[in-house]
Amino acid sequence: MRELKVVGLDFNDGRGGTRIVCETAEGTEKFVLRPDDRLRAALSGDALPAQADSEVPHVLSPKEIQSRIRAGASVEQVAGAAGDDVARVERFAHPVLLERSRAAELATAAHPVLADGPAVLTLLETITTALVARGLDPDATAWDAWRNEDGRWTVQLTWKAGRSENVAHFRFTPGSHGGTATAFDDAAAELIDPHYDRPPLRSVAPVPTLDLSLPEPTPAPEPAPAPSQEPAKAAAKPRTRKRRPEVPGWEDVLLGVRSANQP
């Protein structure tokens, strides 16, 4: 809270009244204060008139601003809740925002805690593998972190699947070899589950049962094959060789007699 000192009065305020002129202790800035019933009561030591708390502006100290930012609030949220100037809040919030960003970066190098202990892969490697297996872009993610009242860090991962925005939270514990990250909600537990890439079991179709109470149908006899319409070929008759006439020898022709072996 800044301290002011009275340096004079302003009688020409344009409204027929008097204003009190104040300046900072360094003398670099000046302020004008218009007297009202609350100021007169405060100067005279009387009780202040009743006024709703919502009408009394509360200027946050730098420590209060940083405490709220460290707990996860944004600059706009702190300025809106306190009715303070965004530029002023941002000036004190800047180093704390860097601290949160650094904590989120360190958390990505931590090892997820599984049922059998910390995983070999880092949180970033595990998340990247899970998102790629789901057909999502691992680069389209946002990391944030804030410190809880107990001093522990909560890390938030935000990613998009289609038009929906998804959020997962982890508890980050700094330590040797990067520290550990424990799933804080179901979304986080699903992302670091080492069995997420197993295909779902296919349902088995029920086996049909035979109803023995009904007689089994007798199969119809197959029809006999139709006789061939092609006429049978007549059996081939053996072919007889015709006997050649015997040619008389030369002696028979010349002597007019037949050989002894001729009939």
Automatic annotation (TrEMBL):
Q: Where is this region: Disordered?
A: 198-263
Q: Could you tell me which Pfam families the record lists for this protein? A: DUF3071 (PF11268)
Boundaries of every DUF3071 domain copy: 1-172
Pro residues composition-biased segments: 216-228
This one is known as DUF3071 domain-containing protein
Q: Which organism is it from?
A: Mycobacterium yunnanensis
